[in-house]
Amino acid sequence: MILPIKNNVNCSIKFSADGSEKEKKVLEYNHDTLLNNNPATNARIGIDKLTNAFTVYPAKGLKGSKNANFYEFLTMGEVPYLIGSATLMAVFNAATKYFAPFARSKAAPLGNKMALGVVFYALGKSISKSFISTPVNLLTGVDTERPYAKVIYELPDDVNDTDIISIEHHKVFESVEFPRWDLLYGDETKGEKRNFRYDKIAKRLGMGHDLKDSDQEVKPRIKEIIIKTSLAKNISSYLWAATGVALAFQKPWENYFNVMTFKFWKGKEFLKSLQSFKKSFVQSAKALYKGEGAGITKHAGKILLGASVLSTIIGVANAVSSSQKPSKIDAADVIKKDDRYVVN
Amino acid sequence: MTTGLIQNYIADRMPKGHVQNKRNKSEEHGQPNKPMPYFNIRHELDNKTFIKPLEGKGRLLNENIFNAPAIMVKDAIYDAKSLKHAVAGNANDHELGRINDIGLKLGGLAIAGYLFTKKQTPMTKGMEFIGLASFLASMAIWPKIAIQLPAYLIHGINVQKQYEDSFGRKKSFYQDPQFIPWDLYSDEEIKKMGNRLGVPKDIPNRRDAIQEKMRKIATQNNTLWMLTAGFATPIMSALICNQTEPYLSKYLDKLQNKKADKIISNLDKYSEKYKTNEISKNLEKIIDLYRDKPVNAELKKLLNQTFTNGMDLVTAEGVKADLKMLLDDTTYEIDEKTAKEISKNLREKLSEQNFNKEFIRQIIPDEDKMIQIFKENHFMNQKTAEKDLGTISQKILFVIRNNVLSYNESMPEGKKEDLNYIIKLLANNKEKNHPIKKALKKVSGSIFNSRIIETLKKVASLMDDFRAKTNSLDEYACIKVGAAPETVIANYWTNTQKDLLKIIGISKKDIEKTHFDIGVIGKLVRNKFEKIVSDKKTYLEVMDKIAQKISELDTLIKPSDISASLLRNGGDMPQGGAKTAYESTVDAVFNRFAKAINKTGFKQTAKTVAGVNPNDNVGTLKNLQKAYASDRLLGVKSSFLRLYNTLYFYRRVAEKPNDFEYLQYYTREGKEEIIEFCKQFLIDGHSSDYATKFYMPRNPHPSEDRTPLEVKEGKIVNAYYGKTEELADIAGDKYFYQDIMRTLFETEIDDELSNILDKHLFIKEEFENYRSLILNKIGGEKYFAKPRHMVRPDSHAGSELKFNLTGIAMDEFFYKAAQQTYNTNKWLKMFAGFGAGLLGVTVLTQFFFGKMKYNRETGKKQ
Q: Contact A342/B87, CB-based, under 8 Å?
């Protein structure tokens, strides 16, 4: 029988069987901890997840470890994404060098564009999420990307297994059904107001300040915002990704491919390559917008770009607008004092 | 869950009247009441019994091919609902997860859609969507064939089992190893799977042990899936595309061909598509601006632009000439502006020659003086005919002459100016630079009146219609024989290239060995040919197959639609042969247009479009339209006929090398040289070789040896050729050229080949005509350096015809074919190999999954 372990208690449980304290892992966190949403933290989390996705989790998974879980499975989703991108690039380019010169000269730019398309797809998809989350955060105060570190106590493999703590990086609002409300409460022992984060959101949402139970007031609104933001992100990010691919398929990139080099130690050449990238990027963006030919062919780029921008704007607008009208029924009318209620 | 219970409770506690009301309402709407769950919270609470959770409604899903469509529909409905909920802001996690899938597909469609618009041909357009579909399919298929199926075969369990939870949410059974809804499997089912998994039967807690093993296998397989999918999906997708392409190509080819046939049979209706009425519309704008105003240079320019926009230069010249005829009535308006300008022009002319200002001022009449001159001679504000312009010029020059004379009188000797010089300076100019005439001709006297406008409107409408029709004809010709990817002829060419590689026995290994050196490929091709002809049976088979391949083109592009008329009997005549459908249509459209436009007075245009007589065999637009199609076809057919002739000659050499009629007079060395030249020329000769009358370094003093030639395995065993040094091109030897031409193209077709050709009558006709055309057209070509080197009288054939008749050189033909095959092959080998390896490793790994040891005491893993 596995007993639940309370997370929010400052305890350091020792699971060592032989008591060799020296080998004990220094714990970064010993309970679920709210983290800041800033580039440094996000980078650290990203690297941590990526490393685990390629090392620890596959090892656990391939062994069929009893501690393998859904989070690890999802995190491993990075692996096919990255390998797939690389393979896709290879599919279009690997055979090119064996071709006869003329065929090569025709195949190479196309292959390069495909490869660039893969890169821009990934960039477009990931960067564009902030096009939604940042304005939503600014307008509502709800940071849908707020990360936290979750401490997992695993089952030991055997009696000598002392390394049983694993840390997962989640987002406070990654589940709409079970957001980690608890992490957003202030720590009164540190002099923080219990509801200070909720107060802020309530104020930003225009629900007034100095609310008695701001947390209860804003939670339904937050849920709605999370759902709508998630919808907006899911739709618009793929459209931005598609825009990225379209951008990669513009002719001006061919100039860049001619001078492209990743040999950063060859200072001058590399600098030239970077400059050319910048120039080609601008020209390609223009080419995408302007288009060539007539009719739909000419305007396809504009339409795609427009769809991406529009999906972002509509997405944000939908996310910040509330469908919940303030209830006109007094709570006293709903709950009758004489009745018995089941409370969790 | 809790809230659900509370709501139940509240609902139950509602005053009876309220409940009654509600029921009545729903009955009024004709909806039956939803049955209450058998669980009654009121009852439970009142009796203070233990509250049990609601019974689960989850179930395992069995998906197979038969219920897949139904499931797809169900999923789509679920997705739509998810979207609706998300927009409203009340979706759950599962629904939001589905929206990610929707986004993925939407993004994919956006990419395919965008690239679709960027691609030129239906094939490449179609492949964009196939690419997307294959990618999505690969994402779904790979886990099924590389994970699910092998795991099932090895372990007997479905590791990708899906279930639906109590809320109708579809999930993967093993997605979270920490939460597997085991209760959905009955004891019986688990037991059965346990037996298949080889879990000992005599251990306690056997169900737990089986479940543990199943979980382990599933976790391992899920991980394997994640590790392999990245490699597998793009490769599988690419392979699917690669395999689908030929089918799509075939399908689209047929579709295109049918579409083209419809164009020609329904030209009037089809050309509506191209009817933009651009000329008429632009003309309207011009009319609005210039109606009843004098025709000036600007208007002429506008009209020229409007009517000749996008037109070929020759026809445009005709149109311009006709427009000029219509607009110019050769009278000019003379007014104050003209006077001012003449005065200014004259002064400028003199200042250029550094005459002093005072002198110029004195001799050149100023504006008022000029007006006076015009008025005195009744030119002012009058329409003046061109012939009278000279008179005005004379009058002005006369005034200037008098002015100079009077100036000179007042000046001392030495300061007098040379009158003759000045008059010459002003009068001896071309019209464009003439200081007086230039200004006089500036404003045309003709008015853009209703007569001109009506004519132009008629012409514009005719031209709009004509343009729409020629665009449709162009489209037809392009689909059929266009020099573009994926036209009927291009597809035929590509396919035939591939087939011919097989027919003449060039293998993938051969191709790899050539390293794309065209010289090496030439040698390879020659060797293959020699090998084929050395064996009668093989030779006849190959010739039959090639004839079939050539005649295939006639089924795709019917000779009654478009034909290389020159290759047909009687086609060489100016009015020869029956007209093809395309030719008749072109004739009809062009002649009708020419006739109609001729009536409006646009005679030059009519002439450039259709000539003077309906069957004029000159460079009219009509003949160009026809020639494009037949020339393209001629080029392609000549290439295949050249291959045919090459093999035929090789066979003759292999079989009867000493029987060549035209080589009887040569010594053995001479024969060896000529045959070698013929063989090599057929492989790599171009039209330039014909033009220079066959340059070949030969032995100027050949050996007198007249022993017969020897042949071994299709090759001549050379006794002399290649062994003599000091070779030179013998420029004066006209027989060299003539005998080669005759040997290659005039030798009779032997019975062997005749028998085969009798099966393919069209090819026979074309083959014979091809050979005689080369003799007549190319053999009658004059070359200044070797003037008498001809087999026929001067043919005056154009270089285009000679080029088309020469066809593609055999080494080039197979070089290109080899390249295409090689590229596809190289790629396929690389990735199909990798894909197969990946599949192998993925499957093999699974044999090591699920290994466990059991403790017979506790049933737990040791």
A: no
On whether any CB of chain A is under 8 Å from the CB of B176, the answer is: yes
B111: distance to nearest CA of chain A, Å?
Answer: 5
Query: What 3-state class would DSSP assign to B172?
Result: strand
Residues 805..844 of B with a Cβ closer than 8 Å to A: which? 819, 822-823, 826-827, 830-831
Q: Cα–Cα distance between B754 and A332 in angstroms, integer? A: 108
The CA–CA distances, whole Å, from B277 to B307, B313, B469, B606, B851 equal: 12, 21, 12, 20, 78
Q: How confident is the model at residue B30 (pLDDT cuts 50, 70, 90)?
A: very low
**A294 → chain B, closest CA residue:** B117
Q: Does B120 touch chain A (CB under 8 A)?
A: no
**Is some CB atom of chain A closer than 8 A to the CB atom of B518?**
no
End-to-end Cα, chain B, rounded Å: 39
- CA–CA separation, B204 vs B858, rounded Å? 6
Could you count the other beta carbons within 10 Å of the beta carbon of residue A132?
27
pLDDT at residue A71, rounded to an integer = 93
Residue A253 sits at φ, ψ, to 5 deg, of -65, -25
Structure tokens at B781: 């070509």
Q: What is the DSSP letter of B94?
A: H
Q: Kindly report the pTM of this predicted structure.
A: 0.72
Residue of B2, B114, B822 lying closest to A242 (CB–CB): B114
Q: Within B557-620, where are the H helices?
A: 581-599, 603-610
Report whether B359 contacts B346 (CB < 8 A): no
Cβ-Cβ contacts under 8 Å for B433 (sequence gap 6 or more): none
Q: Assess contact for A16 and A162: CB atoms under 8 A.
A: yes
Q: Which helix (H) or strand (E) holds A151?
A: strand A147-153
Confidence of residue B412 (pLDDT cuts 50, 70, 90): confident
Residue B720 reports pLDDT greater than 80? yes
Given this model, what pLDDT does residue B25 score?
Answer: 45
Average pLDDT for A74-94: 89
Of the candidates B2, B103, B117, the beta carbon closest to that of A235 is on B103
To the nearest whole angstrom, how far is the Cα of A123 from the nearest Cα of chain B?
14
B3 touches chain A (CB under 8 A): no
Do the interacting molecules here have an ipTM over 0.95?
Answer: no
Answer yes or no: are the C-beta atoms of A305 and A131 closer than 8 Å. no
Q: How far is B450 from chain A (nearest CA, A)?
A: 36
Token digits of residue B786: 């070797």
Give the Å distances, CA to CA, from B80 to A226, A232, B84, B391, B432: 19, 15, 6, 89, 76
Interchain contact, A66 vs B13, CB within 8 Å? no
Burial of A306 from C-beta contacts in 10 A (0-12 / 13-18 / 19+): middle
Please state the rounded mean pLDDT for residues B206-210.
Answer: 92
**Kind of pairing between the strands at B331-333 and B697-698:** unpaired
Which phi and psi angles does B710 have, rounded to 5°? -110, 145
Is B663 buried (19+), middle (13-18) or exposed (0-12) by CB count in 10 A? Answer: buried
- For residue B418, the 8-state DSSP code is -
Most A CBs within 10 A among B104, B115, B118, hence the mutation to make, goes to B118
pLDDT in tens, B51-92: 667 778 889 988 777 888 888 898 999 999 999 999 888 899
CB–CB of A318 and B87 under 8 A?
yes
Q: What percent of chain B has pLDDT over 90?
A: 35
8 A C-beta contact, residue A220 and residue A127: no
Q: How many whole angstroms separate alpha carbon B287 and alpha carbon B454? A: 10
Q: Which residue of B has its CA nearest to A249?
A: B115
Q: B312: Cβ–Cβ under 8 A, 6 or more apart, which residues? A: B621, B624
Amino acid identity at B542: V
Give me the residues paired with residue B333 across strands. Answer: B383
